[in-house]
Prior knowledge:
Elements: H1 4-18, H2 32-41, H3 48-80, H4 98-119, H5 121-138, H6 150-156, H7 158-168, H8 178-203, H9 206-212, H10 221-246, H11 254-268, H12 285-302, E1 304-305, H13 307-313, E2 324-325
Helix pairs in contact: 2-7, 3-4, 3-5, 4-5, 5-7, 6-8, 7-8, 8-10, 11-12
Amino acid sequence: MPSLRTVNRSQSFWPYVQIARMDHWFKNSFMLLGVLLALFYEPTLFTRAGGLRLSLAILATCLIASSNYVLNELIDAPHDRFHPVKKHRPVPLGLVQPTFAVLEWLLLGASGLTVAFLLNPYFAASGFALWGMGVAYNVPPLRTKELPYLDVLSESVNNPLRLFLGWFALVADKLPPLSLTLAYWMVGAFFMATKRFAEYRHIGDLAVAIHYRKSFGYYTEERLLVSMFFYAITCALLTGVFIVRYHIELILFVPVAAGFFAYYLHLGLQDDSPVQNPEKLYKQRGFLLYMTLTVIVFVLLMFTNIPVLYDLFNIRPSPITPLWRLGS
């Protein structure tokens, strides 16, 4: 039987593990697009050495992300007390010593950036940008999370930063396509605006909502819905540029992607919407299945060549050698 002292120590340590939000590490799967792009342009990178670099990249990104989560938990505690769910987090409950939390934030950030510098300067710069955006998003006087629209855009910029991290883990001498990078930013903005919309509706009390997040003093359901529409359309246009410029086969992916946006919006419009907590979306089995299908279709089309599409759309074929060729 464990002693009472051992139990108390484990209980006092666990809140510091919780505020690092390791259950949010799944968000680093957004690095996958950068990895796929790198392998699309340079298939020779698919080696054991490339796998090792990618493993270090994932470790660095997770540590940096957890550093940002600790900072968010610490600074947001006074506001989280007004949220019906977040008021039960460790910091608002008084289970975390602020001094130790600051040390945890610095230690995680320094560890992640140290690993990042072991890879290459471009990956390290992207990692530092991810960490810096965590500071800009949370820390006064800038604290972009309090500013309407900038709160969404400054948090969703982590999407293209993760794309860079996936890309620079394998490629260190060129940049990924700007069109897809910006489209990826708009995907994240759509997700984040949908989350804001769901939170706004769930709280239901404007005064409480403003105490929780100042930007809710400006937002309305209509304004949030309009912004979601803007981000989705902008993403579609930028993705179209990438498809026409680099890989027309992805035009077959458009209906699947549109269905994914529609499915996510459907979830966002529900009462007590699950998109308020993206880390728990795995419980939505239908959504998880559709998301998996979306990723599979995208990956297959990225590495497939369909010559007839270039004739139909009068586009010059990409010089990159595909893994699969359908038709003559």
